[in-house]
Design goal:
3 helices, twelve-stranded parallel beta sheet, 22 strands, 244 residues
Length: 244
């Protein structure tokens, strides 16, 4: 049996939900407008400023700091950090650095000072960590993988999701590794290569759409939101149209 305070709390909570929904209906199209966050995508550090190639996309809440060079048609996705503060980071053309990835370098790591080098047409999956490592062109790094100081992925090397490539280890060209710590699994197949090529192309196309949308002014973004609210309110299943 609920106590008096339990019943009172439940009643107040339900009343608040009703008031909230009623308020949203009364506000109509202006029920919610997001405040824009002033965030610097590119930040100079230690006398160095990032260099970004043509047609590359840097997500609005990504952070590219210091001595970082990004080639053409590459994409740096949401909540990603490229921190070239104690050494340099170089990323080639048509490379994808997915959401929540952290790329750093080293000034005094276990293998000494090391930059991070990432080649052309490389895919790095979401939530990965690349620290003072080298990833050569046309390579694949699966979601949530970690590459430690001095590790190397040679051209056309593949690392499966959730793997840990320990310091100083090298994935030879055309090898597919996986595990924690990562070990050789098999040779890369033609199907693997085609899937990587398709993934790179998809991300180039998608990044162009995101770049177009995120380049809009605050007024244009709010106008888009209001238009979508108007469209949604005509749907019977939309939350603002549900009966109280």
């Amino acid at each position: 049996m609920k106590g008096v305070f339990g019943i009172l709390g439940e009643t107040l909570k339900n009343t608040a939900m009703v008031i909230h929904r009623t308020g949203c209906k009364m506000q109509g199209d202006y029920a919610y407008i997001e405040k824009l966050n002033r965030h610097a995508r590119l930040t100079a550090f230690g006398g160095n400023a990032p260099i970004v190639g043509q047609k590359s996309f840097i997500a609005p809440n990504a952070s590219v700091i210091g001595d970082v060079v990004i080639g053409k048609e590459s994409s740096i996705w949401y909540n990603t950090v490229l921190r070239g503060d104690v050494n340099s980071i170089h990323i080639g053309d048509k490379t994808v650095v997915s959401d929540r990835t952290v790329v750093h370098c080293s000034s005094n790591g276990p293998l000494g000072p090391k930059p991070t080098q990432i080649g052309d047409k490389v895919y790095i999956g979401p939530g990965s960590i690349v620290h003072a490592a080298t990833i050569q062109g046309e390579s694949y790094i699966g979601t949530g993988s970690t590459l430690c100081d001095g590790s190397v992925v040679e051209k056309n090397g593949f690392l499966e999701a959730g793997s840990l490539l320990t310091a100083g280890k090298t994935i030879k060209s055309g090898e597919y590794w996986g595990g924690s710590p990562a070990k050789f699994v098999r040779q890369v197949t033609k199907e693997d290569e085609l899937q990587l090529e398709k993934l790179i192309d998809q991300n180039i196309n998608l990044s162009e759409q995101h770049d177009k949308q995120t380049s809009k002014s605050a007024k244009e973004l709010n106008s888009d939101l209001l238009q979508k609210y108007v469209e949604n309110r005509t749907r019977s299943d939309h939350i603002l149209n549900k009966s109280l």
